[in-house]
Amino acid sequence: MVLLDIAATLGGQTMGSSSSRSTPLTHGSCGMWLGSWATDEELVWARNLIRTEHPEYMDPNKIGTAVSDIRLVRYSMKNEKGVSIFTRGGRDFYEGNPETMQTLMKYGAACGGISKFGTQMSQAFGIPGLPVGQPGHCAYMWLKNGTRWIISNDIWGWGVGGAHWSVQYSWRSSSPFFQMMLHAQQNPAAYHLSEKMRIVAPFISDPTLRYEVLEDATTVCPYNYDLYYDLQEAISKETAPRDLVEKQMLPVLQDHYNTLFEVERDVAHRKNVGNVTTSFGKFGRHLVDGGMSHWATNFTQGWVEIDLAYPCTINSVEIDWWGLSVSNDYDVLAHIDGEFVKVHSRKDEKRTRDWFNPKGKLPGWDGLTMKVRLELRGGVLDVWSKAFYIGM
Question: How far is CA 83 from the centre of its chain?
Fold first, then answer.
């Protein structure tokens, strides 16, 4: 099998093998390498491409960024004949050719094809990778040097999105759980012991001992996500040792609470979105819910207002625009000391990119703020349904 033939050399080492990583692959990560969607022929082609034309990327710390750094696949919404990539699932865009790595490099692709190429390029060198679905976008993750998952071609970060449905995973598909599983399995002795403790716990008749075994297991391997389901069940039993639970768990919760209020928070998260103008669409809650759903309007202008519920110090404002449907002219107003004052406009926004799913950031301002209002103008028609002008 070609996937196991990882003979591309890097300074005498075998790239993709444990000899070129500071940490060997965990068994959970191996599935993201051996389960590549690419054929053997594609993987051989990919390795030859890097070896002959871009040897500087034959590095387990760099190969995952090759597709974006070198722009091996250009971003393209239409081919040379003007056919949209969204027509018939891309079949017409690629003129009937199979969607191989070679085809993607020749014709270009949208975010999904670019992330698919980046994933498979990593896998060609024995580096685990997987595509990651995000709201209106597709990114990908790759395992840098066997020690840390990195998100590339990214828009939304770790907070939202997860593996595509056909990718196998151990706990949950959300992106952070892959990092969590990696941490758990990087100490295999602790992970295996915690799993043994979790498996034997249901056979313990004494509820106090059952709880103590599971609680000790979370100390042995705190990243073992499955333990917390069983621990929750043990605590919920009527026979659970309440005094023991309180003695052991409350200090942990108190530490978490103290840490929570020492770090910066998203003060708009799940707050009330009020006074959405009647001409400005529905689902205002999606502006602040932190989820994968978006909010969009079929009008070119309007305004929304977020009630922060209590006076807040605003250090920055971040806006995740949807597709191409951005506001090219807007004002930010803050409700300070009983009145709205203009604090920023479009010219103050710094965007990560100007063409697709841009992420904008505005600096904060002085004064305790109760509400934030966005007065939006100059929307851009979306490329999918051609019905919406501004989306976030």
Answer: 30
Q: What is the C-alpha to C-alpha distance for residues 62 and 122, in angstroms, rounded to an integer? A: 9
- In sequence order, which residues have a C-beta less than 8 Å from that of residue 307 and are 6 or more positions away? 271, 272, 273, 274, 370, 371
3-state class of 62 per DSSP? coil
pTM greater than 0.70 (yes/no): no
243: phi then psi, degrees, rounded to nearest 5:
-65, -40
Tell me how far CA of residue 208 lies from CA of 39, 205, 243, in angstroms. Answer: 53, 9, 10
Burial label, 161 (beta-carbon count in 10 A; 0-12, 13-18, 19+): buried
**CA–CA–CA angle 99, 100, 102 (5° rounding):** 120
Cα–Cα distance between 25 and 122 in angstroms, integer?
14
User: In terms of Cα–Cα distance, which of 219, 230, 231 is closest to 193?
Assistant: 219
- Tens of pLDDT, residue by residue over 344-365, are 999 999 987 666 788 889 999 9
- Ranges of residues in the chain with a pLDDT under 70 are 1-25, 27-28, 165-166, 168, 237-264, 274-283, 289-293, 353-355
**Cβ neighbour number for residue 341 with a 10 Å cutoff:** 13
Residue 226 in tokens: 């499955």
Tokens of residue 96, six digits = 């009937």
Tell me how far apart the alpha carbons of residues 133 and 141 are, in angstroms, rounded to a whole number.
Answer: 10
CB-CB contact of 226 with 171 (8 Å): yes
317: left (phi over 0), alpha (psi -120 to 50) or beta: beta
Q: How many CA atoms lie within 13 A of 133 on its CB side?
A: 11
Phi, psi of 349 (to 5 degrees): -85, 135
Give strand ranges (E) for 40-180.
Answer: 129-134, 137-144, 148-152, 162-163
What lies within 8 Å, CB to CB, of 213 at 6+ separation is 197, 200, 201, 204
Structure tokens at 122: 């990593």
Per DSSP, 203 falls in state G
CA dihedral 292, 298, 303, 304 (to 10 degrees): -30
